[in-house]
Design goal:
The chain is α+β, with helices and mostly antiparallel strands. The protein is built from seven helices and eleven strands. β9 and β10 form a beta hairpin.
């Protein structure tokens, strides 16, 4: 029996398929961090910690003439976003309805994606996670509100990375507001701003809810390490005559191996 307890929910195979497909569609678009970092896993719900490859000496010796050290690990953090689905909507789906209201699932998916992106880019101190932006050793470059100067800021970031010996291609994670501005803007002469930024970076420009401003990162590999225990899944919690209480859940750790490999662009 899985810890997700899906077999106890009053949901048919067709209903679970509908929910899983909806969650996958919403999460794929919003999980920007995974597209820019090294993803390892999923290693399973029982996977609890990431090996840091380091140890520290214990102050209390276990015996005369014996020294002791303890391995250091980074415990995985578990994220859970709750939501409920009306049983009427589930019944309608079984009848073949094509306009089933899954708004609560969409909201939960957005919330957990924002939380994951924020942890990767801005950290989650309580879980021992340092984010890419806060770990960066480069000076911040304020993104500002005038998106026509974004190419200048991005080019300066790429130059800083190259100057530190960090190869490309490079990617850019942009918060929703900045990403919308880029999509809507053509530079003087009508040249699309998005295309200009692509040419500077050599890599993708991603819509990244949960990111403050933007972050330019190297995509050469080995610099940013995301380790997944359980990948995002829907679990069952309880139900009554009106609704089924469910949740989206994941476990992961994140480490910045090369702080020099990113430049933060705060809003």
């Amino acid at each position: 029996m899985s810890h997700l307890l899906r077999e106890h929910a009053p949901i048919t195979e067709q209903g679970w398929r509908l929910l899983d497909e909806e969650a996958r569609e919403r999460l794929t678009a919003a999980l920007a961090a995974r597209k820019l970092v090294d993803f390892s896993g999923p290693h399973g719900w029982g996977y609890s910690a990431t090996n840091l490859g380091r140890s520290e000496e214990l102050s209390d010796a276990p015996g005369d003439g014996v020294a002791a050290t303890q391995r250091r690990v980074l415990g995985l953090v578990e994220l859970r976003a709750h939501f409920s689905i009306s049983r009427v909507q589930l019944d309608d789906a079984e009848r073949g309805a094509s306009d089933v209201d899954l708004g609560t699932l969409d909201t939960a998916a957005r919330r957990i994606a924002i939380s994951e992106n924020a942890a990767v880019f801005h950290g989650l101190g309580a879980a021992g996670i340092r984010g890419i932006a806060e770990a960066s050793t480069h000076d911040q470059i304020n993104l500002g509100e005038d998106c026509e100067v974004y190419p200048r800021h991005v080019a300066k970031s790429v130059d800083a990375l190259r100057g530190a010996g960090i190869d490309g291609p490079y990617g850019l994670a942009l918060g929703p507001e900045g990403h919308t501005h880029v999509l809507e803007t053509a530079e003087h002469g009508g040249y699309p701003l998005m295309q200009h930024l692509h040419e500077i970076l050599g890599g993708p420009i991603l819509w990244a809810p949960g990111v403050d401003g933007g972050v330019v990162v190297s995509l050469r590999g080995g610099d940013f390490l995301f380790e997944s225990g359980q990948d995002l899944s829907i679990g069952y919690e309880a139900h009554d005559a009106d609704a089924v209480q469910l949740y989206l859940e994941e476990s992961f750790s994140f480490r910045v191996a090369t702080p020099e490999a990113a430049v933060p662009l705060p809003a």
